[in-house]
Write a structure and sequence with these properties.
The chain has about 300 residues and is of the alpha/beta class. The chain contains eleven helices and ten strands.
């Protein structure tokens, strides 16, 4: 494992911080398949993205988990901006960096993500043909989540107040010179509406997985981009790469994995359901992550070669 940093090719003012994992027996003169791993909204590379990246490296891949622009140890202001277009472009910026590494086979690059990182990965794959295979874990189309709620129970039009909130936050930010926050997961246990989201609070705000660089909130101004964003836009036409979707059978977010599978144009696509798992179990549950890694490793090995 090597901590690295490099200039974001989409915005040279930003330096991306990442962890590069090399497979056992690594030969610098060799040529390896590589996998980009994107973290959830509000997460950082040291959490679940780092877990998946490390486990896939043990199975023979070069992997890279990185902090999004404006987040974690990556630079960029305002801090904690969750602009979905920037986050999608980050995936391609990381691939730009991978193509400069002599031991990475440019024709064998895959990408995966967890939660919102999965949605951003999908959106990047729709646009960036260098991504030859796509994996998702507990996928969240973050725009659909803000429009329709965690369990898809809200109508699109009823999310209009969130656009108002984001617009007002921009005005307040301009006047104050600060940036109003909003939670991406419950900031307090009492704020969680159900057990699954209580576990999200626990993950980010207790010893379970808390990290100093992952405060658990975003800028409220981000809502003006998030609410109208569709991570799966044009997936029915351009998402032709092999696709493996991993979701928990009892995850409140599973509808977004089902939607992805239905909309993807790929003729090589599959859903792997981890029985009894909720959304958060696939972040750090020992058995659940082991099952997810096993199927993802086989998928990437078969589609990228290993």
């Amino acid at each position: 494992m090597q901590k690295i940093s490099f200039t974001n090719s989409n915005n040279p003012a930003i330096t991306l911080s990442a962890v590069l994992n090399l497979p056992e027996g690594f030969d610098e003169n060799g040529s390896y398949p590589a996998i980009v791993v994107s973290h959830p909204g509000g997460g950082v590379k040291e959490q679940t993205a780092g877990t998946y990246a490390a486990e896939l490296a043990r199975r023979g891949f070069v992997t890279i988990a990185y902090d999004a622009s404006h987040q974690g140890e990556s630079t960029g202001t305002p801090r904690q901006l969750e602009n979905p277009h920037v986050r999608t472009e980050d995936v391609s910026a990381v691939i730009d960096h991978l193509t400069t590494l002599p031991f990475v086979d440019r024709s064998r690059i895959g990408a995966m993500g967890i939660c919102a990182g999965a949605g951003y990965t999908v959106n990047a794959a729709i646009n960036d043909r260098r991504i030859r295979a796509v994996g998702t874990v507990s996928a969240v189309n973050i725009g659909a989540m803000f429009r329709n709620g965690w369990d898809n129970s809200v109508k699109d039009a009823d999310a209009l107040p969130l656009l108002e909130m984001g617009s007002n936050a921009r005005t307040a930010d301009a006047a104050s010179g600060t940036h109003a926050p909003m939670p991406l997961a419950p900031m307090n246990e009492a704020d969680a509406p159900n057990e699954e989201l209580r576990q999200a609070w626990e993950y980010y705000h207790t010893q379970r997985a808390q990290c100093a660089t992952a405060p658990g909130f975003a800028t409220a101004r981000s809502l003006t981009q998030l609410v109208t964003y569709d991570a799966y836009h044009m997936a029915d036409v351009y998402l032709t790469q092999p696709l493996l979707v991993v979701a928990g059978s009892v995850a409140g977010s599973k509808w977004m994995s089902d939607d992805l599978l239905a909309r993807a144009a790929s003729t090589d696509k599959a859903l792997h359901v981890v029985e009894g798992a909720n959304h958060m179990d696939l972040y750090d549950g020992r058995d659940q992550v082991a099952e997810a890694v096993s199927v993802l490793a086989q998928f990437f090995a078969e589609r990228l070669g290993n």
